[in-house]
Amino acid sequence: MRFRLTPRETSFYDMFAASADNIVTGSKLLMELLGADASARAEIAERMRAAEHAGDDATHAIFHQLNSSFITPFDREDIYTLAGSLDDIMDFMEEAVDLVVLYQVEELPKGVEQQIEVLARAAELTAEAMPNLRTMTNLTEYWIEVNRLENQADQIHRKLLAQLFNGKYDAIEVLKLKQIVDVLEEAADAFEHVANTVETIAVKES
């Protein structure tokens, strides 16, 4: 790690950790959605919206701190990218829950639970990794595993698409369900973006 002669604004570490913890909350709500009947989904969606708003607040706090800090712990562009990518994850998870409610989906296709399990694991890994930005240690296994999970998510997504187009569902239902599984896939991609940004930061700081 490079030796610095200037003090650094360290509150960013806590804010990134808080943002990642909020994503774990969102992933748990996704898991809860799987076992919920239609009557309970609206309440889960409301809690997810609250979590998404909390994520927005965390992102805005990071941007405000970035704009008001003369010295930052690492490159400003990387701080902006990392905060934005964390926010994207929460946005996609909230969108998926909202679509399930708005489309009044009675039953999600088999395989969606695997998508959500991958997201939940990626959320846990991300929350564990964020505090390590302070020391830039124990991060390599994190981004390797998240990239592996994203590859797994890709495979699950392709199988889900094949299932949706096998003739079991009518055309309107296919459109609804495809949009939901596509948004969950975008969440997995966003986790990979976060991991790739962390890798970029770690390489620069080494």
UniProtKB/TrEMBL annotation:
<protein>
    <submittedName>
        <fullName>DUF47 family protein</fullName>
    </submittedName>
</protein>
<comment type="similarity">
    <text>Belongs to the UPF0111 family.</text>
</comment>
<dbReference type="InterPro" id="IPR018445">
    <property type="entry name" value="Put_Phosphate_transp_reg"/>
</dbReference>
<dbReference type="InterPro" id="IPR038078">
    <property type="entry name" value="PhoU-like_sf"/>
</dbReference>
<dbReference type="InterPro" id="IPR052912">
    <property type="entry name" value="UPF0111_domain"/>
</dbReference>
<dbReference type="Pfam" id="PF01865">
    <property type="entry name" value="PhoU_div"/>
</dbReference>
